[in-house]
Amino acid sequence: MSNTSRPLNGLLIGTASAATQIEGGDTNNNWYEWAQGPNIADGSTPFRANDHWNRWREDNELMSELGFPIARIGLEWSRIEPEPGHFDHAVIDRYREELADLKERGIKPLVTLHHFSNPLWLERNGQWTNPLSIKAFLRYVRYVVRALSDLVDEWVTINEPNVYATQAHLFREGPPGNVSMRDTLKVMRHMAIAHLYAYELIHSITPDATVTIAHHLRSFAPLNPNNPWHKFLTSADSYLFQDQLTEAFGKGKFGPVMGRSPVPEGRYVDVIGLNYYSRTAVDGLKDGTFPDVPLNDLGWEIYPQGLVECSKDLNERLGVPVWITENGCADNGDANHLESFRPKFLADHLGAILDSSVPIERYYHWCFVDNWEWSDGEIPRFGIVYNDYETQRRIVKPSSRMLSEIVKSGELSSDIIARYTAGQTYRTPSTINRVGTKHTSDPQEKP
Ligand code: BGC
């Protein structure tokens, strides 16, 4: 990493979140139901989460104090459309209040329409394996975009279709938890069609809107670059998990396993959202890591250059600018610190962006306040703000202050890096403090 100060050059920085992971209180979605079974590492459910449904004003206020100009937020479909075709106007009004408040504070929202969770009625009807899900999604999108278009003009239709499809239908990491390659591909296909039509629908309502997906890409690399089997699997994984979806969602171009495209080939994203977390060393079908690499507290490799590699790939394939719609790390700190290496992670990833020539326009860090991490429950802490789940007290972590200084000064300066990352090192396979139990110690660092 270079040691000089780097101007942001127009890169906008904020944070990202998803409704189910922060709102709390909703029992009408598939993840709440799934969390009733033995599926969540700590037995928690999204019912508690951050109570953001009631505390949104406080969260917005904190965000505006920190000075972030943008925020990615999500909507809960099951709240908005609790029964098929029946929309809850009070819920939309509540979202309107939150969005208007962001606007007043000068924070521009990027709004996600689908982020892993489905209304129970959709789940009962075969969720996204059923082609009728496409129609249902478009009905919901039409309602929401018409209701919010005076406050929102940036939309993510679907978050990580590849992660959704594989966790739900291949790896048993999410509802309904079956194992079927056929269903996985069906879901990818239906979500792609839903996005392509939603792209056109949103533009027919608000022609100037910016519409995209949040695509999850990993850097895939053969564990042994001299092993032809590892090399073959690397290309196969990359194609099946991400590249074919880049083409399908971004261009309407369906490869052989996706079936026929319903639309003429064209451009179906205005920018491309990238969620990037890690690199995978490939020697089989499951994710692996290279030996002795830096790891986060969930054992995922920290590989900043991958952020640029994946951005470059998307930009070259689709010809549109990249927005990093998610990037972050599980860092649970230790008994005396709220975090151990997130500031270094931020310096390394932002540094990689600023050192590259790829047109990356936005960076949304995952996430703002520590939140409910799906099947990992409340265990891993991804937030730049600490959440005490018992009291719902928010405590600013050093990384919040660091990001705030970067945004306010308009540069990633060597001084900021030196002050926030002094003494920080990443964990490795031999030093990792892999999280598997709740972080119960009292936070020592005060705002
Ligand atoms: C998801 C987020 C999740 C994050 C960290 C991403 O794949 O979009 O919802 O919290 O990873 O696990």
Commentary on this structure:
The protein has 447 residues and is α/β, with parallel strands linked by helices. The protein has a single domain, classed as TIM Barrel (Alpha-Beta Barrel), CATH 3.20.20. Helices cover 38% and strands 16% of the residues. The protein has 14 helices and twelve strands. The strands form three sheets. It has an eight-stranded parallel beta barrel, surrounded by five helices. Residues 437-447 have low confidence and may be disordered. It binds beta-D-glucopyranose. Beta-D-glucopyranose binds at residues 18, 21, 159-160, 163, 216, 275, 326, 366, 373, 382.
Q: How much helical structure, as a percent, in the residues?
A: 25-40%
Strand content: 15-25%
Strand-pairing-aware structural class: alpha/beta
* The CATH fourth-level homologous superfamily: Glycosidases
| CATH topology name | TIM Barrel
End-to-end separation: 29 Å
- Residue stretches low in confidence (pLDDT < 50, at least 5 long) are 437-447
Distinct small-molecule ligands in the complex: beta-D-glucopyranose
Q: What is the typical, i.e. mean, pLDDT?
A: 95
Number of strands: 12
Major β-sheet strand ordering: 2-3-4-5-6-7-8-9
Give the overall shape. Answer: globular
Radius of gyration: 21 Å
- Sketch the topology as an H/E string, one letter per element: EEHHHEHHEHHEHHEHEHEHEEEHEH
What would CATH call the class? Alpha Beta
**In this structure, how is the largest beta sheet organized?**
8 strands, parallel, barrel
Corresponding CATH architecture: Alpha-Beta Barrel
- What's the total helix number? 14
